[in-house]
Amino acid sequence: MEKLRFEDLNLSKEIQKAVMEMGFEEATPIQSQSIPYLLEGRDVIGQAQTGTGKTAAFGIPILEMIDPLSRMLQAAIVCPTRELAIQVAEEIKKLAKYKRGIEILPIYGGQPIDRQFIALKRGVQIIIGTPGRIMDHMKRRTLKMEGLKMVVLDEADEMLDMGFRDDIEAILKQTPKERQTILFSATMPKAILELTKRYQNNPQMIKLVHKEMTAPKIEQVYYEVKEHAKADTFSRLIDAYNLKLSLAFCNTKKRVDELVETLKARGYQAEGLHGDLSQYQRDRVMSRFRKGVIEILVATDVAARGIDVEDIEAVFNYDVPQDEEYYIHRIGRTGRAGKTGRAFTFVVGRDIYKMKDIQKYTNAKIKLAKVPSVSDVAEVKTTILLDKIKGAIEEGHLGKYVSLVERIVEEEYTSLDIAAALLKLSMDEKPEKAKEGMRQDSDDELKDTGAKHGMVRFFINIGSEQRIQAKDIVGTIANVTGIPGKAIGAIDIFDAYTFVEVPKELAKDVQRGMKDTKIKGRRINMEIAKPKSSRDRDY
Ligand code: ADP
Ligand code: MG
User: Fold this and answer.
1) Are 150 and 126 part of one and the same domain?
2) CA distances from residue 469 to 331, 450, 454, 520 in whole angstroms, order as listed
3) Percent with pLDDT over 90 in the chain
4) 184: in domain
5) For a designed S-S bond to 164, which of 78, 131, 250, 535 qualifies (C-beta 3.0 to 4.6 A apart)?
6) Closest alpha carbon to 224 in 367, 397, 123
């Protein structure tokens, strides 16, 4: 049994309609195999990698088994991060679209708890939350577990990695014994199996590891490169394939930071994702990546786990993963939703042996490729530009521009001359370089502002002489830029000026947002503080 049609899964009309509307044609293997057991009320351990539709695998049975006439809490889904809790809640809400009387609520830290109280009071049958926040509500008795029928531990391995073991056990201990316990995880380390032994009742194990490779949709290649040539190869590939959204993996946090720096210096919008980020920083990076503000997200394996972003065009294994299983997880982030993805792996020296292991393990065709030369890159760029021009012609609405061309034609140039000159202007390398230089400089100025690590210090030209207090500064920055007050760091108020620290990744937004702003009615000038050495002279 591989995949089933949703029609064959004995689902209600409402669910079938929602699933159809979501564009699912057939159930994925993990769905085909777990839904029947879950509908029977069995405990399940499901192992399948990211992107295989685990949410619907437990979400559909939950929706089918909830009693909409009872307003008691009936199902709790525990997720490692707020990001995932929100993602899961959204997916389940979509699945529930045609079901009446089912209330679904994500609860996670960082959201005002009283807003959650109000929502919970109204009666919610399904909650999706992070372990900490669920515990919090249980302690306050705002979540009553007596009527709970189903508990899902989603991304269980990730939760254990993040140190949630005690919280998870505490939650399970306070839920009715006869509950149905469902556990999904991308990997099955021993700690998970122990957990299932203790808290599950005769669970059905469903393991779908490398079958769902989705390999045909991902074009996989590797390049043999020298370590010092990786960055160059990377940028050439980004440029040659004109990639707008890519995910790059490094084996350590330090490597992530280094690669982010290198890419930024080359003018790319890159950010890192690793365990050192606060939840707030992580959410922010993810939402910027989702929106495409960040073109390249650089991550470690653990930090990227469970993240589901559509439209990732390419995955780069900047470092060959240590584990074959990681390779599969990594490249599975691209080639989603029927689109073709690309996976590029950089192989240095002895990495080639690991690459061979990966090849054997995945049973996929991973081809050795030649790094595109500078002229290949130029050729691809030219093709893209010419395609754009053709597109613009077909789209029409060129009247205004035609009349401009006519003006020059009257001065005895041919339209061919004009077209060629315009192409030259738009293909000229110089403006690109100038832009890169600019971006680099502006990032450099964030480097040494005398702030705490990870923060950037700003100078504001008002101080205690203007009766400025810290709360005025925090209030204005939070209002104008939308960043939460608690993200703002140290504030030092002097007679005529003030220093304030903000997280580095928000510095540019703050800088932009605070242009031409007033604090207490006074127009201020806020700028990035200069390094200590030059500050002594300047201020
Ligand atoms: P996982 O939890 O296994 O990482 P998700 O549940 O987040 O995976 O699903 C990944 C993506 O696949 C989501 O965008 C989801 O809507 C989609 N999806 C889920 N089931 C199906 C299906 N049967 N057919 C097509 N797409 C699906
Ligand atoms: Mg998931």
Assistant:
1) yes
2) 50, 21, 24, 10
3) 40
4) yes
5) 131
6) 367
| Spacing, Cα 480 to ligand 1 middle (Å) | 37
Instruction: Measure 211 CA to ligand 2 centroid, in angstroms.
Output: 17
Nearest CA residue ID for atom 10, ligand 1: 51
* Substitution candidate for ligand 1 out of 55, 77, 128 with most atoms within 8 A of CB: 55
441 within a domain of the structure (yes/no) = no
Closest CA to 172 of 62, 108, 76: 76
Partners of 518 in the β-ladder: 523
Distance 51 CA to ligand 1 centre (A): 6
Measured from the Cα of 55, ligand 1's closest atom is 6
Q: What's the CATH code of the domain at 95?
A: 3.40.50.300
The reply to whether 389 and 281 lie within a common domain is no
The protein residue whose alpha carbon is closest to atom 20 in ligand 1 is: 53
- pLDDT 10s digits, 31-90: 999 999 999 999 999 998 777 899 999 999 999 999 999 999 999 999 988 888 988 999
Ligand nearest to the CA of 50: 1
Please tell me the distance between residue 303's alpha carbon and the centre of ligand 2 in angstroms: 14
Mean pLDDT of 495-510: 87
Q: Are residues 12 and 65 in the same domain?
A: yes
Please tell me the pTM assigned to this model: 0.50
Note whether 238 and 368 are same-domain residues.
Answer: yes
Distance 517 CA to ligand 1 centre (A): 44
Q: How much is the average pLDDT of 224-250?
A: 90
- Clarify whether residues 80 and 182 are in a common domain: yes
Whether 182 and 277 share a structural domain:
no
User: Of all atoms in ligand 1, which is nearest to the CA of residue 28?
Assistant: 23
3-state secondary structure string across 299-346: ECHHHHCCCCCCCCCEEEECCCCCCHHHHHHHHCCCCCCCCCEEEEEE
The answer to whether residue 213 sits within a structural domain is: no
Q: Among 363, 396, 426, where does a domain finish? A: 426
Mean pLDDT for the chain overall: 85
524 falls within a domain: yes
Residue nearest to atom 19 of ligand 1 (CA): 53
Percent of the chain clearing pLDDT 70 (strictly above): 92
Atom of ligand 1 nearest to the CA of 306: 4
Q: What is the CA radius of gyration of the chain?
A: 27
Q: How many domains does one find in the chain?
A: 4
Do residue 297 and residue 309 come from a single domain?
yes
Domain of 511 in residue numbering reads as 446-538
- Residues 11, 153 within the same domain: yes
Mean pLDDT across 398-414: 76
Q: Could you read off the pLDDT of 441-486 as tens digits, one per residue?
A: 456 778 778 888 888 999 999 998 888 888 888 888 887 777 777 8
Q: Give the closest residue (by CA) to ligand 1 atom 24.
A: 24
Beta partners for residue 453, in sequence order: none
CATH, residue 460: 3.30.70.330
CA distance 39 to 55: 15
| Ligand nearest to the CA of residue 46, numbered in listed order | 1
Tell me which of 60 and 531 has the higher pLDDT: 60
Helix or strand (DSSP H, E) at 233: helix 230-240
Q: Band the pLDDT of 532: cuts 50, 70, 90.
A: low
pLDDT at 355 exceeding the cut of 50: yes
